[in-house]
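If you are new to this repository, start here. Below is one unmodified record pulled from the training split, so you can see the exact layout before writing a loader.
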Amino acid sequence: MIEVRPLTYFISAYEEGSITAAASRCFIAQPSVTHAIKTLEISLGVKLFERSKRGIKPTADGHKLYKLASDLLLQNQQLEAAFIPSNVHELNLYVQPDINIERYANILELIKNTPINVNLFIVDVIEQAQIALIDEQLLPPQFKFKGLNQEGYKLIVHKDHP
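And here is the target side for that same chain:
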């Protein structure tokens, strides 16, 4: 049985024409997309993309899988929508380990108390997140940066110190 997640990565790669762009779109690392596509190719016994320096181009089997996978994922979404309330949205948050999350409790409360119903989850790796509390220098390319505050650290020295 083929899993849904690799099909999602395949569809992203197909539509983007690039493994790197697909990884960015899916908020995961590029090797994960490559691995998912290779796994699909092995399990189906076909080649799905022609790879070149300019990106990827679907083969005839790639076009065939795209149509079938798109239909399957649409049906999967419809199945979920039929049983899961549409007003519940899941939001994955990554918090850089050395950040004191208590300092941002007010922001988390605002997210949780929005007019839409949000289930907020804290994830361990940034590739699984839709939003993150992170130092700007560590920002992965798939995220945009919005400054929340500037740390106001001061150096203090005893008045008798030379």
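Two things worth knowing about this chain: DSSP finds five helices and five strands in the chain. The mean pLDDT is 85.
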